Amino acid sequence: MSQNELSPSVVAEHIQNIPRSGIRDFFELVQGREGVISLGVGEPDFRTPWHIREAAIYSLEKGQTSYTSNLGMPSLRKSIRKYVKSFFDVDYNDANEILVTVGVSEAIDIALRALINPGDEVIYHEPCYVSYHPSIAMVHGVPVPVKTYFEDGFSLRAEEIEKALTPKTKVLMLNFPTNPTGAVLDEGEMRKIAKLCIERNLVVITDEIYSELRYDGVRHRSIAAEPGMKGRTVLLHGFSKAFAMTGFRLGYACAPTFLIEAMMKVHQYGALCAPITSQAAAVEALENGAPAVEEMRLAYDRRRKFMVKSLNGMGLPTADPGGGFYVFPDIRATGLTSKEFATQLLEAENVAAVPGTAFGLAGEGFLRCCYATSFDELREAIVRIERFLNSLGVGKG
Amino acid sequence: MVSDPLLSILSRNARVSLESLADQTSLSVEEVAAKIAGYEKDGTILGFQTVVDEEKAGSVDVSALIEVRLTPERGGGFDRLAHRIAKFDQVVSCWLMSGGYDLAVLVQGADLRQVAQFVSQKLSTLDGVLSTATHFKLKSYKEAGFEAHQETGDTRLPVTP
Ligand SMILES: Cc1ncc(COP(=O)(O)O)c(C=O)c1O
Questions:
Q1: Are A122 and A135 in contact (CB under 8 A)?
Q2: What domains lie within chain A, and their CATH numbers?
């Protein structure tokens, strides 16, 4: 027996301190069960449109199997520039203001690594995407969550940010439309937030991965397009959601040159470049993907309306989400915690939906239901959830 | 793509229940039924069919795509003759085409002889038909938007961030 056996305490303390993911806990409960209808999946049920997959195959056939420029293929950066300019109304120079990454996931990580000194505070709004808190902690930043409220449809109030500001605040992270609430940012608040960021000299990292999936005829607007904001904003976007390309692992960051340079330093040593096959597919997606995106958006919209109406109808107050593919019903009337509700619903009715607390404490009392699932499954899920509510004695049925 | 979501859902799957259609379009069941009836009445909906993989179903029918050249008529162009050809039971589809010929006629028959007979005795003998060229179908890879070769099932994990 060796005298020097390793113990788990060798793991870096700040990594030890990151709690287990609530998503993973719940995944383990669901895994292996038969007949589950899952509203717990955070990705599209559609396949990547064929013309995009075909472009990836064509690239392989032609023998494109090398590294690319660290920043990403020049042709892809050109396509991104054109797309971002027309979609977000902000023009970034494809030579030095755009960086192609391995998903928005990597972009979040390298943006924070490029910006945060140990102890710097990062404000973000909860409930939020699961990676924000750990990503900040992993770069030795201090995560400072601020709350969003059901009453506001989970939009963010500028005053909440103001209350959380300290001299150490450096970065504000935004994600609208939001995972898990589907919230969009009220435009009046967006202007106030922009003003605040300029006054307090904050950098904004804005994750707009769901921005194509907006509803009710409202055009998406990015905070990067607010006057004076482009120079202090890192705009993150990717292909996973609107183009149904999760497995391609591709995203991008648009930011002022000095920030792209800094992020590039991290990216070139940590990832070298994004996969070339995915980059070839992404060019096709940006150049010719709009009709397929629109068709998927219309399908999500039909499901969204059905879910909001059904959940409200059975007595679970549900804000009308302006974007994304999630609804976030309020289950407080049942007297159960999010975790109890989700676990009992799974056990009683075989419907999986993620407890709101997986997305931060502000998610207590809520449940994330993803409607990127076939209509037949959604209808069956609604029948089962209603039956479950009735069994608790709180349903309207 | 058609503009009414009701039609776009039905064009992909005609068996969706009225209740589900109502949920998907935010209409009532009665409104959906009335709309469909209206579309059937005014001919917007021509019919409902099942798309069958003929090979799997063991069908030995033969199909042919026939290129037909016609003499246009004063006033009606190709319409009168095209309608007349389309009416034959053997004709599955009939389209006016741009390019080197005028009509593409998709014909189905029990065997090669039946199709050949239809072409030589019915089609080419019509006044106004100048020529025909018959191409027999060998194998089907996709029918009415459905691939014969199915993709793998859902590969997504049941719970993801
Ligand atoms: C808000 C948000 N940001 C980022 C990601 C990760 O995206 P990517 O697949 O581009 O890494 C997700 C995925 O669920 C998300 O919901």
A1: no
A2: 8-48+291-392 (3.90.1150.10), 50-289 (3.40.640.10)
